[in-house]
Design goal:
The complex is a heterodimer of chains A (113) and B (116). Chain A has 113 residues and is mostly beta strands. Chain A contains no helices and eleven strands. Chain B is mainly β and 116 residues long. Chain B has strands at 5-7, 10-13, 19-24, 31-37, 44-50, 53-56, 65-68, 75-79, 88-95, 106-107, 111-115. In chain B, the strands form two sheets. In chain B, strands 2, 4, 5, 6, 9, 10 and 11 form a seven-stranded mixed sheet that branches. A four-stranded antiparallel sheet of chain B has the order 1-3-8-7, with no helix packed on it. In chain B, strand 7 (65-68) and strand 8 (75-79) form a beta hairpin. Classes of the chains: A mainly beta (113), B mainly beta (116).
């Protein structure tokens, strides 16, 4: 069984500030981990994924995430927030690539001017 | 190219009514998933198809929910005798199911169902 916990349902940052969205996972086997972003009235868009090739994963729109097995974490970061980053972000885990995703409850990111 | 499309985008149903939600996956995608996203929650898995075979339906919440993909492309999620707790956004996703390292689920915009 696998599960995902996202700490903080709402995160607010100033434009230009560091973005840090937290995700911890629980999995009985080495997991595959994902971050998706959801803009209002749109589907989920993949930001990045961890497939065991490298622990630091770079994604689209300047986001990256680091897989830390010892901490069972996969936190999402971006050095400098932009207004267009305001959206809901979901961390997800799957046991195998191509299998069902288990999502966290999401973190709503607000970017203040 | 075209992404995953879903119709209708919005559906209002009276309690007890049957509804059918359609998903058109990306052409050539083998795998198709349905998820349910309640307000303020993350998506939850409902069911999974590989071509026309429904390989996992463990997430369907009751026997009122039924999904099919008869020709291995378009899929329909049917909800019979809708209840208020069925109100949610229903998301469809598809993936190629080829090279393992390329596997990504591509999501449609969802159908927002409101049961009154």
């Amino acid at each position: 069984a696998q599960s995902v916990t996202q700490l903080g349902s709402h995160v607010s940052v100033s434009e230009g500030a560091l973005v840090l969205l937290r995700c911890n996972y629980s999995s009985s086997v080495p997991p595959y981990l994902f971050w998706y972003v959801q803009y209002p009235n749109q589907g989920l868009q993949l930001l990045l994924k961890y497939t065991s090739a490298a622990t630091l994963v770079k994604g689209i729109n300047g986001f990256e995430a680091e897989f830390k097995k010892s901490e069972t974490s996969f936190h999402l970061t971006k050095p400098s927030a932009h207004m267009r980053d305001a959206a809901e972000y979901f961390c997800a885990v799957s046991l195998t690539l191509g299998s069902r995703l288990t999502f966290g409850e999401g973190t709503q990111l607000t970017v203040n001017p | 190219g075209a992404g995953v499309s879903q119709s209708p985008r919005y559906k209002v149903a009276k309690r007890g009514q049957d509804v059918a939600l359609r998903c058109d996956p990306i052409s050539g995608h083998v795998s198709l998933f349905w998820y349910q996203q309640a307000l303020g929650q993350g998506p939850e898995f409902l069911t999974y198809f590989q071509n026309e075979a429904q390989l996992d339906k463990s997430g369907l919440p009751s026997d009122r929910f039924f999904a099919e993909r008869p020709e291995g492309s378009v899929s329909t999620l049917k909800i019979q005798r809708t209840q208020q707790e069925d109100s949610a956004v229903y998301l469809c996703a598809s993936s190629q199911d080829r090279e393992w390292y390329q596997e990504t689920q591509y999501f449609g915009p969802g159908t927002r169902l409101l049961v009154l």
